[in-house]
Amino acid sequence: MLLSNFSPQRYLCREALRQTLRPRSRLVAVTAMASTVVYVKGDPVANKLGDCPFCHRVLLTYERKKVPYTMEFIDFANKPAWLQEASGGKVPVIKEDGKPYMPDSDVIVVHLENEYPEPSMKSSVPPEIGAKLFPAFRGVLMGPPEEQAEKQALLVSELKAINDYLEAHQAEGPLFGGQQINATDAAVSPKLYHTIVALKHFKGWELPEEFVAIRRYMQAIKQLPEWQKTDYEEATLIKGWEKHMTHH
Questions:
Q1: Domain span at residue 82?
Q2: What pTM value is reported for the model?
Q3: Over 60: is that where the pLDDT of 9 sits?
């Protein structure tokens, strides 16, 4: 366009027409995604996230995929009536616009991978890696004293399998997903977090020194923005388990 023939009024009119005729599907899609609500353990009064590792898994997935969402905190001491009907009183639960409540972190993360395939979080890590970590951790934390040796041996066995896998694939990066989190990271890292923090606080148990890859793993994942946006911090984690220890 020659500057001598340039008309600001004509240009602005043409731009307005272009904006009007532009397809609106993208805008509608973003608006629909933004209406997703993720119900998680937390304190609605203090507006603070709680320490649920299964909620953490789902939030890490949302953050990695950059899918807009809002959080609603569920006070476990005062659960809403709808939650019992939707999930048996468990979290996480998601509610997408126009769709029924969807409970269960296993179901939710598969749904997110199918609906938002990029970036992919698909994992080639064998599903047995980390699968028994959480019950093994709970066995040490809450098991009777006479079973401590047996429970700790089981936990160490689970941790060794995790450490061995990470060690064998360290050339790809410190995480299960290499440099970025994948589905295995989202599932296992919150459980490792609970295991390391809670057992040290309540049992004086330290992660064995030989598990260097796990130490490197936790250090790396805590540096990622996905983790930093979803971390409920160690004090909250300890406070959450104190209630279980009190009633144990």
A1: 29-115
A2: 0.85
A3: no
